[in-house]
Design brief:
Number of helices: 6
Radius of gyration: 16 Å
Helix content: 25-40%
Strand content: 25-35%
Number of strands: 8
Shape: globular
Length: about 190
């Protein structure tokens, strides 16, 4: 078992490699990769109400896309490129924050698998690997916020163990153009 205080520094400074996937820190050199993968999620604006932006990619890489808590700091956030070892190419990315909503939780700010790589088990494998890694550092939960309009996402997250409702946020006043989000947790 690893020491919790080493979790984020270790993730930021060395790749995490499993039998089939490699997770490495995203850099400015990965902007085109992030754009390509994000562009393949054609339903993002419909389900979440806003598209990906260049500023968003940069904030994610630089660690300034932080959760809505006053104590959030860039040293607790990292964006990782997910690469398939067998395909020898990037197949997704994940934005992680350690400490939201509490110290025992690794929060997934964004998780996208390229459309061409979906339905091959990469998403499930990536979440299983990150879950094992987080538990090795004594974290107790992983969490994510999912749009209520993202039925595919809700089904996926439920299938990989995110089953505890943490929070519900909805735009008000409600109408069909508004959005809602559920925060769900997975026990590690």
């Amino acid at each position: 078992m690893e020491k919790l205080e080493n979790f984020m520094p270790d993730l930021k400074h060395q790749p995490y490699i499993t039998e089939t996937l490699r997770f490495r820190r995203a850099t400015h050199d990965d902007l085109s990769t992030l754009r390509h993968i994000a562009k393949s999620w054609t339903q993002k604006e419909l389900t979440e109400g806003e598209p990906f932006t260049e500023e968003g990619y940069i904030a994610s890489i630089e660690g300034t896309d932080l959760p809505p808590i006053p104590t959030a700091t860039a040293d607790r956030q990292v964006t990782l490129i997910i690469e398939s070892i067998t395909l020898d190419c990037p197949i997704g990315f994940v934005e992680l924050y350690h400490g939201y909503p509490d110290e025992d939780t690794l929060w997934i700010g964004m998780f996208v698998i390229d459309a061409d790589a979906r339905r091959h088990g990469f998403g499930k494998t990536a979440i299983e690997a990150l879950s094992l890694l987080a538990s090795d550092y004594h974290l107790k939960f992983m969490g994510i916020g999912v749009s209520l309009k993202n039925w595919t996402g809700l089904k996926f997250w439920h299938s990989v163990g995110f089953k505890t409702l943490f929070s519900v946020h909805v735009d008000t006043p409600y109408d069909a153009s508004k959005h809602g989000l559920v925060g769900i947790l997975k026990t590690l």
